[in-house]
Amino acid sequence: MRLTTWLGVVLAFLWLPGHSSASVAVLLEEPYGYDGAFGGVGHAAVYLNRVCAASPTSLRRCVEGEYGVVISRYNRIGGYDWIAIPLIPYLYAVARPEDIPTFADNKIAGLLRDQYRHDHLQELVPDAPVGQAPGNWVQLVGSSYNRTTFTYELETTAQQDDELIGWLNGRPNRPIYRVVTRNCADFVRDIVNFYYPKAVSRGIVADFGMTTPKRVARSISKYSRRHSDLEFVSRVIPQVPGTIRRSKPVHGMAESVFKAKKYVLALAFFQPYVAGGFAAAYLVDGRFKTDRKATIFSLDAVESSVAVNQRRAYQTNLHELPISSEVSATKPIEK
């Protein structure tokens, strides 16, 4: 079958109504750009399928037909600690599933992001006096243009969701970002632990005391195995096909050194004991593979066997397709 047919199937999954059970999902987002080239730790966010955004800085329960919200901690965006973005805009920078492009390049992604910002985020990210708004805001929308995301999902109850809404809405939302102690993964750790205390821990050995996105995913996966009574699902949200550079595998702290030849070979030559320490830390406490057999993320919990087969065929056809830099979105962008 033609690749466009498979793309249509994948996007059709996204358009179907959300499933009825509530859940909290860790989003493990692959690195790109400088992070992909040097560190590779990626980004972490949390997705709640029955909690929605009353505004980018306040939450409410969803109503019928809404897809939930993605919440994450950001650095220097609007003077806030966390920001809540509806799921579809967070992934694709459009308000409606039917507007998601099947292919994208940097120009298309940039236009969609800026159009969504102009229509929905002006109070949070206003137009700059000269030129476009400051660059950090692009993290808020269109994540799937730049990276593949893995999700690790545990069931929740309506009472738990209401308590989280009250907790986040009731506390100060001021910037407290710190790379080592209060990063995006620390925020996700706090949210998951609010639902399930002590489910997620810091990486004492392999991450040198930090919380990393991969550590959060590893912890919630281990927690699900210890609590088999809880429904647990892992899924993958593929990066949108196009000419944008593909994202890189996500790593932990020790792993980023151990698996990078440019780092580990130099260390092994000049400081062999240090290199051995990185290797030991990774092997003892840092091994965790993203689930390459995960089902394609869908809003209606498509059956796993169907989703896996279609994902494999989709990826096979995608790799065989020569993508032109002139590929455009499925719909023209309205000014």
Task: Describe the model.
- There is one protein chain.
- By secondary structure, the chain is an alpha+beta fold.
- It has one domain.
- The chain contains eleven helices and nine strands.
- The strands form two sheets. Strands 6-5-2-1-7-8-9 form a seven-stranded mixed β-sheet.
- A hairpin with an 8-residue loop joins strand 5 (69-73) and strand 6 (82-86).
- The longest helix has 17 residues, at 304-320.
The strand order across the widest sheet is 6-5-2-1-7-8-9
Helical/strand content category: alpha+beta
- Whole-number average pLDDT? 79
Strand element count: 9
Which percent bin holds the helix content? 25-40%
Considering the chains and any ligands shown, give keywords for the structure.
single chain, 335 residues, two-stranded antiparallel sheet, 11 helices, globular, disordered N terminus
Q: What is the topological layout?
A:
Blueprint: H1 3-15, E1 23-29, H2 33-39, E2 43-48, E3 51-55, E4 58-61, E5 69-73, E6 82-86, H3 87-92, H4 106-120, E7 149-155, H5 158-170, H6 184-195, H7 213-226, E8 232-237, H8 253-258, H9 261-270, H10 272-285, E9 295-296, H11 304-320
Parallel strand pairs: 8-9
Antiparallel strand pairs: 1-2, 1-7, 2-5, 3-4, 5-6, 7-8
Helix pairs in contact: 1-11, 6-7, 9-10
